[in-house]
Automatic annotation (TrEMBL):
This is Glycosyltransferase N-terminal domain-containing protein. PANTHER family: GLUCOSYL/GLUCURONOSYL TRANSFERASES, GLYCOSYLTRANSFERASE. Keywords: Transferase. Belongs to the UDP-glycosyltransferase family.
């Protein structure tokens, strides 16, 4: 594949070339993920993609995140620990404590890193100049830091675009009276870009009323900061969400970030190291290999969602048992998460069901047994009202019948395209996103190189 500027190959192990002279200046990129495994992993994939295209990526992680001070996972990706201290020091527990700690301590640490890199670049040569900062939208505290340091910033959304659209719809939901000032649903949702969305899809409706208010305030603050960005890179692709990119914006209030799909970001043939506080169960893949293709239900709540409560754990456990289907359930090995499991549940489902503390998600999702996936949105919202019959019905809808077959056909088609490399992040995409559009300095230098016939 060729670069959009001059046809030179920037991608691949055989076609990679070094950046030289003026072209090498400002090639450093600082990446700031939200400190949760489901966010760090795709950011690491983005860092690797940038490294393959001649950039010098650095992953900035808080020091409490396991591995932040360890040797690099990839020789082309540097690590910069942010000395933020423990995640819950004085800010409460769980999600609220983590966010409070990051808001209070991380900005000064990132600002110090950016200023040091700028000083090193001026004194030691061009290689240290920072072209831009790529900020996980949930780590929005980094956006004003980059602005203060005079470094261009781009947002990064590690999930599907549809989930960001729901968050970006908050002003419209408030204006039209769909939700209250605290985020409480007041009437049935009507989102033109997601006609099947319901109040259960609102990401702040987690936990008790206090938790929901805190999460809604977090999303409002996140959105305000994100709207100051020029671009948001989304870990998605047009084939997966063909209509969302062409829909009119929800509001007319400028400025709005430009959405740039750069996915799917996957490890492909690269190593898939675990990077975070939860260690995956190494027996998952062998267990999956023993199951027929298209037979397993996967249940996961993500790395930063709080405990769902004993009643919901009990309801989900009994619902999974009632389906009679094989399942792999990733449920953190902590009392706050596992309280509510029926007595002798693991013994009763042994062989058919497997309960693990953490699954190597990328690795296990690459195996053929998956038939249905109950992800965070289902588990945190619907479980509180989902009865056994409804859960069985949802599973059978996906795993059997004409509608399920059509879903599986589409998933298989997208999987084949990804594995065959048709949807792999292309050089022109990442170059256009970061090289041309995010750093005006690089735009000028690239034009000079082109006009000089380099």
């Amino acid at each position: 594949m060729r670069n959009a500027f001059n046809g030179r190959t920037l991608d691949g192990h055989h076609g990679r070339r070094r950046l030289r002279g003026a072209e090498a200046r400002g090639r450093a990129v600082i990446l700031v993920p939200f400190p949760a495994q489901g966010h760090v992993t795709p950011m690491l994939h983005l860092a690797r993609a940038l490294a393959r295209r001649g950039f010098a990526p650095t992953l900035a992680l808080p020091d409490f995140f396991q591995g932040a001070a360890a040797p690099p996972l990839d020789p082309a990706v540097a690590l910069a620990p942010l000395a933020t201290g423990p995640p819950h020091g004085g800010g409460g527990e769980g999600f609220a404590g983590l966010v409070a700690a990051m808001e209070a301590r991380a900005p000064a640490q990132l600002e110090r890193l950016l200023l040091l890199r700028r000083g090193a670049g001026a004194g030691a040569g061009a290689g240290e100049e920072v072209a831009c900062v790529v900020v996980d939208v949930l780590a929005s505290w980094a956006v004003p830091v980059a602005a203060r340091c005079g470094v261009p910033a781009a947002g990064f959304w590690p999930a599907m675009l549809a989930s960001y659209r729901i968050v970006s719809a908050i002003p419209e939901l408030l204006r039209k009276g769909f939700i209250s000032d605290c985020g409480t649903p007041l009437q049935e949702l009507h989102l033109p870009f997601l006609p099947k969305a319901t109040a259960d899809d609102l990401p702040w409706l987690v936990g008790n009323s206090t938790s929901r208010k805190l999460r809604f305030a977090f999303w409002c603050r996140t959105l305000r900061r994100a709207q100051t960005l020029r671009h948001i890179l989304v870990n998605s692709f047009d084939e997966a969400e063909p209509r969302t990119h062409d829909l009119p914006e929800l509001t007319t209030s400028p400025p709005r970030p430009r959405i740039l799909p750069i996915g799917p970001l996957t490890a492909h043939n690269e190593a898939r190291p675990n990077y975070g506080p939860y260690q995956p169960d190494p027996t998952c893949v062998d267990w999956l290999d023993s199951k027929p293709a298209g037979s397993v239900i996967y249940v996961s709540f993500g790395s930063w969602v709080g405990p769902i409560g004993p009643d919901r754990v009990d309801a989900l456990a009994r619902g999974l048992d009632s389906t009679g289907r094989p399942f792999l359930w990733a449920l953190k090995p902590e009392p706050a998460w596992r309280t509510g499991l029926p007595a002798r549940f693991e013994e009763r489902v042994a062989g058919r069901g497997k309960l693990v503390g953490w699954a190597p998600q990328e690795e296990v999702l690459g195996t053929p047994p998956w038939a249905a996936i109950l992800r965070t949105a289902v588990g945190t919202q619907r479980v509180r009202t989902m009865d056994l019959g409804e859960l069985r019905g949802c599973v059978e809808k996906v795993m059997g019948g004409r509608e399920g077959e059509e879903m599986q056909r589409r998933v298989d088609e997208l999987r084949r395209e990804v594995l065959q490399g048709k949807l792999v992040l292309e050089p022109r995409t990442i170059s256009n996103c970061l090289w041309i559009q995010l750093s005006e300095r690089l735009v000028c230098e690239t034009k000079q190189l082109l006009y000089s016939g380099y």
